[in-house]
Amino acid sequence: MLLCATASKAKCCDPAEGLETWNELKRLLRNLGLENEQRQEGIVLRSKVDCLRVCERGPILVVWPEGIWYANVTSNKIETILRSHIINNQPVEQWIYKTTPFQIGPLQSA
Ligand code: FES
Predict the structure, then answer these.
(1) Is residue 89 part of a domain?
(2) CB–CB of 5/67 below 8 Å?
(3) Gap between the terminal Cα atoms of the chain
(4) What's residue 103's pLDDT?
(5) Contact 34, 86 (CB under 8 A)
(6) How is 36-73 classified by DSSP, letter by letter?
(7) Which of 4, 6, 17, 19 should be mutated for ligand 1, with most atoms under 8 A from CB?
(8) If 63 and its partner were Cys, which of 16, 68, 76, 93 is the partner (CB 3.0–4.6 Å)?
(9) How many domains does the chain have?
(10) Domain range for residue 31?
(11) Does ligand 1 come within 6 angstroms of the Cβ of 71?
């Protein structure tokens, strides 16, 4: 999960609001057991990024490699996203900004 929340140029959101979202993401990933290395589905990794080149309607959250982008991810939305999308594999359609699924194409031979 990649979150633009406290960008150095702070274009997409208020950094104070973004920091709340980041802190809530960290707290809930831990509390919901999503960082537990014994988790059967694997651990969920998080990273705070400086800018995702959206620069509006932030905080912006990307779930990768599914390529699902959420906009306006205030801290009160984090639990819904984690429970619905990450735990139950049901993306929260009404908050999706765009989708850019990661695809691996066939290797090209030289
Ligand atoms: S500053 Fe957040 S996407 Fe660019």
Answers:
(1) yes
(2) no
(3) 35
(4) 76
(5) yes
(6) -TT-TT-PPP-EEES--S--SS-SEEEETTTTEEESS-
(7) 4
(8) 68
(9) 1
(10) 2-99
(11) no
33 part of a folded domain: yes
Kindly state whether residue 23 falls inside one of the protein's structural domains: yes
- CA of 41 from ligand 1 middle (Å) equals 30
Mean of the per-residue pLDDT values for the chain? 94
CATH number of 46's domain = 3.40.30.10
110 domain residue, yes or no: no
Does ligand 1 come within 6 angstroms of the Cβ of 98?
no
Tens of pLDDT, residues 33-71: 999 999 999 999 999 999 999 999 999 999 999 999 999
Burial-class residue 82 by CB neighbours within 10 Å (0-12, 13-18, 19+): buried
Nearest atom in ligand 1 to the alpha carbon of residue 7 is 1
Q: Does the CB atom of residue 61 touch ligand 1 within 6 A?
A: no
